[in-house]
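yo

u said u wanted the structure for the complex thing, so here. seqs first:
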Amino acid sequence: MSAQLPGPVMVASGCGGTGRELEAFAGAAGIAGLHLVTRSITLDARPGGAAPRVAEVPGGLVNAVGLPNPGLEHFLATELPWLVRAGVQVTVSIAGATLGEYADLARRLSRAPGVVGLEVNVGAPDDAGTGLFEVREPYHSASVVAAVRREFPSDRPLLAKLRPDVSRIVEGARACHEAGASAVVIGNSVPAAFPDGRAGGLSGPAIAPIALRCVAAVRAALPDVPTVGSGGVRDLASARAYLDAGALAVQVGTALLHDPTTVARLRADLAEETP
Amino acid sequence: MPEAAVGGAVHGSGHPVHVDGEVVATKRIGGYQHLTLTAPGVPEGFRAGNFVAVSVAGHVARRALWIHRVRASSAFGPTLDVVVERRGDGSGWLAAQPVGTRIAITGPLGRPFALPKEAVSCLLVGEGYAAAPLFPLAERLRERGCAVSLVVSAPDESRLLSALEARRSARSVTVLTADGSVGLRGRVGDHVGDLLARSEADVVYAAGPHEVLRAAASAAERVGAWSQVAVETWTPCGTGLCHGCPLPVVGEDGVARVVRACTEGPVVRGDRVRWDDL
Ligand SMILES: Cc1cc2nc3c(=O)[nH]c(=O)nc-3n(C[C@H](O)[C@H](O)[C@H](O)COP(=O)(O)O)c2cc1C
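structre next:
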C-alpha cells in the first residue's frame, strides 16, 4: 500500500514558524497548496533552549533551538485549524522522549482533521541532549516508525527523517522502510558545535553535498525506497541536484530564513520547468 | 491605554514584503552610518517600532535594523532610513555600501509601539542607535495631541542620535551622555526616575540596550505608569520562521513563556519581560 507523498517542494520542519508567517511571502499562488512540515510537536509544551539558539558560520547556521512548541493540544486547537482553513498541506513533525509518546502523538493526530501526513524526527543532531528518544542504531529509528505506523493508517504518508550520516544511512533507510515508513527524509542538520563548544546542528548550503551523498547511496542500494532530500536547498539548481539523484521531493529549511519567498519561487520555477 | 503586546496575532504590521531595495544615500554621522533605502512596500506599511531584515552579501542570517524614519515621497519615491553601528562583518559591510548597492529587504516586521487612545503625556527614553524608532513614534504621538518628553542617551557624543528634528515633536528634549561630553552626565538608570516624575507621564516608551529598557520599565512600574519597550535581540531571520530569538515574558494569564522577539515583539509591555532570564 503506498501513500501519495507531499511535494515536490516542502517547507522543512522548524523553518516555517507556525506556517502562518509564510502567508505574506507566498506570492501570487498564495499559501493554499503549500506543503508544510510543522516544527516538531511534542506532547507537552516546550519553551525551547536558551539564547543564542542560532549562530552564523561560513556557509550556514548552527542551531540548537530546543524544539520550542506549544504542545500537541494547543497545536491542535490553535495552529492546525488556521493552516487547514488556508489550504496548507500539513505534515506534522512529531518528536517524543519514548515510544509511548510517539504512539500517543500518532494516535491523536490520526484523528485530527486536515493532517496530510506525519514526519518522525529520528535524526535530530543532539537528540539525547534535547530530551528526545535517542537514536544510535537503525533499530532505534525503526522502532519509532513501527510505533507510529501502528497508530497511523497505512494509506497516509509517514516520513522518517534521518541524520545524513553516509556510513549509516542505508541501514537506517532500510530499517525505517521495513517498519512502515512511506519515505525517508535525508537528512537533518548535521551534528556540529557552536563556537563555544555547545552541541548543535549545522544547516544551510554547507551541508547540501553531505545530504546529496546520502541520497545517492540510498538510491543505489534501495531503489524501491522513496526519498526526500533536505539540506541546503535554496534554488532550482540545488533542488534539481536532489531530484536528479532520484529524490521525489525536497525540503527547504535555512534558505527560508535568508529569503522567506524561497519556497514560493522554487514551486513556481519547478512548475515552469516541467512541461 | 496601550494594549498588552505579548502573544496573539502574527506580524503586528499587517503585511510585510520581501523586496529588492537600493541604497540611495549613505552618510556618516558621528559613530554611525545612516542609510536611506528604497524598498517598495516597506515605507508604506511602516509603524513606529517596526524593523527591517536585510541580507548581507555572503551571509545566511539576516541583519535586523530599526526603521528610523520613512519619507512618503522623495526623488527616489518612498524611502526609509536606518542607522547602522559597525559591530561585526555584517554591519561593517552594510555601512560600507555605496549608493546604488542593491539589498534584499524584508519588512516592515514586528509589533510596533501601541499608541494611547487619549492625548496622554508620554516619556520616550532611548539610547544609542537603538533610540531610532522613538523619533517617528514622537511624531505619531504629537499628531494625537500627546505631550512628548524625549530622553536621548548615549555612551558619548559620537553615539548620540541627533535630537534636533525631534524638538518639533517633543515638548522637552533631554540629552544624557555617560561621559558627560554633552548634556547631563550619567546613564538612563541614574536619571529616569527624576525625568519621569518631572514629565508626569502616563506612558513610558523605551528603546535601547536591555539595562535601559529595564530601568525605564521599573521606573514606570514604581509610579504606576504603563511602559512599552522595544527589545533588541539577535534575530537570525526576523520573520518568525526560525524561533531563534527567544524573549522570556509573562503572559497575560500570568504564565511564564518564551515568545519570539521578532514576531510577538520586539515591542512588548515592560512589565511583562522576565529581565533576569533575558
Ligand atoms: C532553526 C532550525 C530549526 C529546526 N527545527 C527542526 C525541528 O523542529 N524538527 C526537525 O525535524 N528538523 C528541524 N530542523 C532541521 C531542518 O528541518 C532541516 O532538515 C535542516 O536544517 C537541513 O536543511 P536546510 O539546510 O535546508 O536547513 C531545524 C533547522 C533549523 C535551521
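The pocket of flavin mononucleotide is lined by residues A 12-15, 39-40, 54, 61, 63, 65, 67, 93, 121, 161, 188-189, 203-204, 207, 230-233, 252-255; B 242, 244 (CB under 6 Å). The domain at 121-277 of chain B is CATH 3.40.50.80 (Rossmann fold).
cya
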